[in-house]
Specification:
The chain folds into 3 domains: 173 residues, Rossmann fold (3-Layer(aba) Sandwich), CATH 3.40.50; 57 residues, no CATH class; 63 residues, Alpha-Beta Plaits. It is elongated and about 80 Å long. α3 runs parallel beside α5 and α8 packs across α10. Strands 6-7-8-3-9-10 form a 6-stranded mixed sheet, with helices on both faces. Strands 2-1-4-5 form a 4-stranded antiparallel sheet. A 4-stranded antiparallel sheet has the order 12-13-11-14, with helices on one face. The protein contains 10 helices and 14 strands.
């Protein structure tokens, strides 16, 4: 089953075309990343999926429920953790989660039990009676994700979940998200951290100017747009004629390098030719691979700028 089916989605804000015919399918259980520069249409697309914005044209289905025809049924499958903090900062953690359970019609006892479960799962049990504003940025982000899971949604949508979070708590959040996905939760992630998308997502969509420009697994996109550079440094000077079987090889004194989409077979051949020379030894091997960031730059021509969030 498809978790999300989007067909020819368009959204206009007066003269501004925020989405220009987006079509996208996300299978159930997938960890999907959405990348794009500021103003690309990411937030508008997410807003249309969760029902915060009404499309000008097109259709969104969530687990085969039309958001237009059956909005309540569609939204019951969605948990949403927004980029901006939108909780009462003076509520304690337990109350924040119980309050969210009430929005979904959970009986008080069930809401209280579910809140306990999530606080334990996200390592926040010891802070359950602490007010939200006293938490660190990483803990605040964890609570926002826990709140989004109160209704046990089949689809979790995360808008910049680690923006403004330090490295260590950021990696802790990654671990929680991986576990959620392994347990069967479909996750859609928007992020300005390309390494995050590369580490977590099975597929990514690159969006710019309201259109999805590329779609695929991080590795498939890297293979499509990038080349890797291999450099081997040896003890003594090398001669070009000894490497005539590798026409793309570049030799400068005691270093030989090649650039290719697949360097494995070339590495094996280069090592064989080097070691066949008397007294020659390998000092170092350096491999510079392509990256999803390089793909992003080539597709959009822009850098991603991390969004700063002021946790007040």
């Amino acid at each position: 089953m498809l978790a999300i089916s989007i067909q020819n989605l368009k959204k206009n804000y007066k003269e501004t075309l925020a989405l220009r015919g987006v079509s996208l399918e996300i299978p159930q259980g997938e960890f999907f990343g959405l990348l794009g520069p500021n103003g690309a249409g990411k937030t508008t697309l997410i807003s249309c999926i969760v029902g915060l914005a009404h499309p000008s044209e097109g259709e969104v289905k969530v687990f085969d429920q039309s958001l237009k025809q059956n909005p309540l049924a569609a939204k019951m499958n969605i948990g949403f953790s927004p980029q901006e903090v939108n909780v009462d900062r003076f509520f304690n953690l337990q109350k924040t989660l119980e309050f969210q359970g009430g929005f979904y019609g959970l009986p008080y006892k069930e809401s209280k039990k579910r809140a306990h479960e999530l606080l334990e799962q996200f390592g926040l049990k010891a802070k359950s009676k602490q007010q939200f504003y006293k938490l660190s940025g990483g803990m605040q982000k964890r609570l926002l994700i826990a709140r989004a899971l109160m209704s046990r949604p089949k689809l979790l949508i995360l808008d910049e979940p680690t923006a403004g979070v330090d490295v260590e708590p950021r990696h802790e959040l990654w671990r929680y998200l991986r576990n959620l996905n392994q347990d069967g939760t479909t996750i859609i992630l928007t992020t300005h951290y390309i390494d995050e998308a590369e580490a977590l997502c099975e597929r990514v969509g690159i969006i710019a100017e309201g259109k999805v420009l590329e779609l695929g697994s991080p590795q498939a996109l890297i293979d499509k747009y990038c080349q890797s550079q291999l450099c081997i440094e040896v003890d003594n000077a090398l001669k070009a004629e000894d490497f005539s079987d590798i026409p793309q090889a570049q030799i400068i004194e005691n270093k030989i390098s090649v650039t290719s989409t697949r360097v494995g077979p070339l590495l094996e051949k280069m090592i064989h030719l080097i070691l066949a020379q008397p007294g020659q030894h390998i000092r170092d091997i350096h491999l510079q691979r392509g990256s999803l960031e390089e793909v992003f730059l080539k597709v959009t021509g822009k850098h991603l700028q991390p969004t700063s969030i002021n946790h007040q």
